[in-house]
Amino acid sequence: MLETTILASVPLGSMLFVLIAFLLLMWVLSKVAYGPLMNILDQRADKISSDLDGAETARQQAEELASKRQGELANARNEATKVVADAKASAQKQSDVLVSQASDRAQAINSQAEVEAQKLKDDAISSAKNDVAALSVAIASKLMQKELSLNDQQALIDAYISDLEKSE
User: Fold this and answer.
1) Domain hosting residue 148, numbered range
2) How many angstroms separate the CA atoms of 79 and 71, rounded?
């Protein structure tokens, strides 16, 4: 009831004036304050949306770059492993060649030494046979006090040598 008394006490012209003033004020505010304020808010919303899109793009690029770096790192590790394996294989191959060459050279030296030892042995035996033959003839001739003939000397030497060979 209080409301009806307030409305009844306000004349219709004043009420219409207040309503028109209010609508005019709303129109002025929408042109002066709400329009620019809404533009600013729209611009800010657009900027935030753009920044979010840019951040998402940057994140995706960073993930792609990280993935690419991981792939390159894996490739580099594989290549390094391959280089190390190749170097080991090459070193082993060179080692095998050097060992083979050293073994061949040692065998050649051993064979040469055996040949030289056999030659020295044969020379020593031949020299010993000649020395023994000369000594035998000298001893035999002193014992017999006579000179042996060449055929007798040869037979005596051959007999002595055959006895030496049997005793060896």
Assistant:
1) 44-167
2) 12
CA distance 123 to 115: 12
Query: What does pTM read for this prediction?
Result: 0.41
> What is the end-to-end Cα distance of the chain in Å, rounded?
160
Summarised one tens digit per residue, pLDDT across range 16-63 is: 999 999 999 998 888 888 878 888 889 999 999 999 999 999 999 999
* Euclidean distance between CA atoms 164 and 131, whole angstroms: 13
Task: Report CA Rg, the chain.
Answer: 63
CB-CB contact of 128 with 104 (8 Å) = no
Cα(100)–Cα(113) distance, integer angstroms: 20
Query: What percent helix, strand, coil does the chain show, rounded to 5?
Result: 95, 0, 5
